[in-house]
Amino acid sequence: MDREIYLDNAATTRAYDEVISYMNDINIKYYGNPSSMHTKGIEAEKLLKLARERIAGSMGAVPGEIYFTSGGTEANNMAIFGYLEANRHSGKHIITTAVEHPSVLEVYKYLSKKGYTVDFINPDSQGIIDLNMLESKITSETALISLLYVNNETGAVQPVQEVVEIKNRLNRNAAIHMDAVQAYGKIRINPGKSGIDLMSVSSHKIHGPKGCGALFVRNGIKLQSILFGGGQENKLRSGTENVPGISGFGLASEITFRNINENSQKLSALKSRFIELLEEKIQDYRVISNENSSPYILNVAFKNLKAEVLLHHLEERGIFVSTGSACSSRRNTSSHVLKAMAVEPCYIDGAIRFSFSSFTSIEDIEYTVSALVDIIPRIRYGGKK
Amino acid sequence: MDREIYLDNAATTRAYDEVISYMNDINIKYYGNPSSMHTKGIEAEKLLKLARERIAGSMGAVPGEIYFTSGGTEANNMAIFGYLEANRHSGKHIITTAVEHPSVLEVYKYLSKKGYTVDFINPDSQGIIDLNMLESKITSETALISLLYVNNETGAVQPVQEVVEIKNRLNRNAAIHMDAVQAYGKIRINPGKSGIDLMSVSSHKIHGPKGCGALFVRNGIKLQSILFGGGQENKLRSGTENVPGISGFGLASEITFRNINENSQKLSALKSRFIELLEEKIQDYRVISNENSSPYILNVAFKNLKAEVLLHHLEERGIFVSTGSACSSRRNTSSHVLKAMAVEPCYIDGAIRFSFSSFTSIEDIEYTVSALVDIIPRIRYGGKK
Q1: What pLDDT sits at residue A384?
Q2: How many angstroms away from the CA of B302 is the closest CA of chain A?
């Protein structure tokens, strides 16, 4: 296959070349355990320190507020379990939405069997949380509010500032947890200033290595460990630190944030062009992603076709896309996100997520749309263009 | 520094060159998310499958019994929390030893505040569990017995077969969990045949990458997840799989097991030579590691000196060692392992762990002992040789 157009960047990204060679170097030269007292340990510890400064700097945090984890899933689990366990007095009520990533949704489903009352708020048809509904749910018993900053399937961006304001007005003690895995490196976020208490980010979504993530924990917020042991990460997250991975994550963040504005502009233009081309050339589809969604994600539902069939036709032409999120794509169930947004049945099974990165070009998009023009009429139930 | 003699392999190892270049290749070519439905996902999934077969094959297990984790610490936490949560009916009593790794010890300290009764059995002066004591502790309420297969500070090997037999005689329903992080790749272990139910292993101790480990879960043993989300690892361990890391772990295992017997023989000879040279040239020391301990670890306590001082003098000569384990070395407290073995106070602060790998040579050992001969008289409290 000659051409490779990778439009599944919300599932995972190709690491930057600089990141890959940096990790390679560290594997060869700086293989010490950061807890060791000798030079090889200290060298490794310095690498961790640099990475922590880079991640902290990217979000206006101080290094002590950054805890490295094995990825976004662990960061979300640690945020929720860790906060609730360390703050048992703060109430047994939780608010989240029905369109969270499984690493939040499944934690709350579990907790709802363990004595917590969890409100899973449905979003509006744009995938945005209903602020009146939120307001009506907050009580003095509310311990935690978890939101997906940018939805991984649709790119919908939640109104974080408004959520924080409402929460502060009604229950200043409730904590705000943001799953920022799809937002980080794409939108500038300063969790400290924004009133976010806990924020999860992931490395492999920003051209860093897999197996790395971080949790921002605002100074003063108490967390209980979920992994116990040697007391690494300021006693909160035990386990020998993945020095090459964490370092690669730090460098990926550095590179990503250097170009965050340019990339955002470039991808906004690219996404607009994609939508324009669809309008010109395709019929019977719905753009699921709303107007203000992340420029990195475009979810389009094509009427009367099976998204999997389209996916496989696209990959024959070297174009890689996703139906819904990667996590659930193998399960062959309709997207919980699109269902919660009340997308009509004739569209929901034909939803494709195109997700971009700074590596994506306008030519990639043009090629993709011409492939769609070619494929769609042949695979539609009714045979329509 | 010209010479580099790395004798801290129990803390972490240098990855094999083949492993580093394999991971590099995967980062470049096979960056897909294994959950994606397209070719790039399937390629990544195939890599996971190969790694799982390699790890399973190394211990006579079937691939479905292997669950990848972010390392040994997570594997231990998942084994203990996951087993107890999924088997709440099986009793609230646990048996372990006082010489476990912190990733087991700290879990049990936590659980002992959460309604579990945990017996931390002291070992004998050789660091071996007292089987009579074990026998006296097992009741019908015993849910889990956790043991460190090879002690990370002393190399002491626990009598696993005897423990399993005693357990089976007194309470067949109790489960056996082995922390095999320092044993794996050094001793041949077939957990299935040995009656082990749960076994934790780590990648970076066998020249694989950091940030990877695995838990063997015997077929039929029920475990509750400790990380919830996308349902990876057969729904037990969520989070996008660290494909390059896991693949590197698989290859490291393959290489390690190919030479396991030769390496064991080589290191036994090397360790004997080390002890011989000490006998010839050094006075007032105690070999803490017992006669049957792992050939990969030699713990020696030098009388009337501070191990840290010796460590720093050694590193000036390019020799890297450890005082106790890496995890606790920064804490400046005496080793809990040596204390539990009742090592005398005049020795305990002078304990150095030399830990070897297949990269270690006899010349390295000879050079190290001549360095010891030079340094020790100058740093002893009394000035003795």
Answers
A1: 47
A2: 18
* Most A-contacting residue of B25, B37, B152 (CB-CB within 10 A), to test interface: B37
Contacts of B73 in chain A (CB under 8 A): 227-230, 238-240
Q: How far is A155 from chain B (nearest CA, A)?
A: 18
For residues B132-146, average pLDDT: 97
Instruction: Select from B28, B210, B241 the Cβ nearest to the Cβ of A243.
Output: B210
* Nearest-angstrom CA–CA distance, A171 and A169: 6
Contacts of B322 in chain A (CB under 8 A): 36-38
* Complex ipTM value: 0.96
Choose among A291, A71, A69: nearest CA to A181: A71
Q: Return the CATH number of A5-13+260-381, one of 3.30.950.30, 3.30.930.10, 1.20.1640.10, 3.90.1150.10.
A: 3.90.1150.10
Range(s) of chain B covered by CATH 3.90.1150.10: 5-13+260-381
A17-258: which CATH architecture? 3-Layer(aba) Sandwich (3.40)
Lowest-pLDDT range, A219-223, A326-330, B55-59? Answer: A326-330
- Supply the mean pLDDT for chain B: 95
Q: Do A27 and B39 touch (CB under 8 A)?
A: no
What integer is the mean pLDDT of A357-374?
Answer: 98
Rg (CA), chain A: 21
Nearest to B376 by CA among B325, B297, B326, B304: B304
| Residues whose CB is less than 8 angstroms from the CB of residue A308 and which lie 6 or more positions away in sequence, other chains included | A323, B37
The maximal CA–CA distance of chain A, rounded, in angstroms, is 70
Cβ neighbours around A379 below 10 Å, total: 16
CA-based nearest residue in chain B for residue A101: B229
Closest chain B C-alpha to A324 CA, distance in angstroms: 10
Q: How far apart are CA B180 and CA A329, in angstroms?
A: 35
Let me know if A212 is a catalytic residue: no
Domain with CATH 3.40.640.10 in chain B: 17-258
Interface test with A, best of B22, B26, B27 (most A CBs within 10 A): B27
Predicted TM-score of the model (pTM): 0.96
- 3 state DSSP class of A248: helix
Catalytic annotation, pick one of B282, B327, B373, B379: B327
Tell me the C-alpha distance between B385 and B383, whole Å: 7
Contact residues on chain B for A75, CB-CB shorter than 8 A: none
Note the pLDDT tens digit of each residue in B64-90. 999 999 999 999 999 999 999 999 999
Query: Which of the residues A86, A170, A327, A346 is marked catalytic?
Result: A327
Strands B142-148, B175-179: pairing is: parallel
A38:B14 CB<8 A: no
pLDDT tens digits, B141-196: 999 999 999 999 999 999 999 999 999 999 999 999 999 999 999 999 999 999 99
CA distance B38 to A6: 10
- Please say if the pLDDT value at position B327 is more than 80: no
3-state secondary structure of A94: strand
What is the pLDDT at residue B385? Answer: 45
Q: Which residues of A touch B37 (CB under 8 A)?
A: 308, 311-312, 322-323, 329-330
Nearest to B12 among A15, A31, A321 (CB): A31
What order of strands is seen across the sheet that includes strand B66-69?
Answer: B66-69, B213-217, B198-202, B175-179, B142-148, B93-97, B117-121
Report the gap between the CA of B254 and the closest CA in chain A (Å).
19
| Of A20, A77, A243, Cβ closest to residue B27 | A20
Q: Which range has the worst mean pLDDT, A243-247, A321-325, B212-216? A: A321-325
Q: Do A209 and B110 touch (CB under 8 A)?
A: no
Q: Is residue A366 left, alpha or beta, with left meaning phi > 0 and alpha meaning psi from -120 to 50?
A: alpha
